[in-house]
Design goal:
mainly alpha; 76% helix; 139 residues; elongated
């Protein structure tokens, strides 16, 4: 742990935020209002791939001089942003409908879960962009 830099901690936080965004999305797909839409393979796939890319980056960085390892933090940033944008696109009609016509406690709760999932994925994407500028190890 002594040869790890601040980028290591930032990447760990990004990894946790990305996983939390994915879990929040998957929980939101099971709510009564959004259950009929199912799970979007693009949102779940991109968020899952981003988490795996960050995990692989943490494991191989410092141990390998491979060029492909440098692509992982940039790819995770792009994947997290794609998942956040696609989540907005699959939830925007439902959120608009809840806010205008179907405003009851259950639907508002489901909408809040969707907004939280979107916010966490956006925060994870921003953290990933910032983390990609830092090295994971001090070597």
């Amino acid at each position: 742990m002594k040869n790890k830099s601040a980028g290591f901690l930032l990447t760990i936080i990004t990894l946790i935020a990305g996983a939390a965004g994915l879990v929040a999305y998957l929980v939101n797909t099971g709510t009564s209002y959004f259950a009929s839409l199912g799970v979007s393979p693009i949102v779940a796939g991109c968020a899952g791939a981003a988490v795996v890319a960050l995990l692989v980056y943490l494991i191989v960085d410092g141990k390998s001089n491979q060029t492909w390892a440098d692509i992982l933090p940039v790819a995770s940033s792009a994947l997290l942003m794609i998942s956040a944008i696609m989540l907005v696109s699959v939830r925007v009609a439902g959120i608009a409908s809840i806010m205008t016509f179907e405003n009851n406690a259950s639907n508002v709760s489901d909408m809040t879960g969707a907004i939280i999932a979107i916010a966490v994925l956006v925060v994870a994407a921003i953290l990933s962009i910032i983390a990609s500028f830092f090295d994971v190890s001090k070597e």
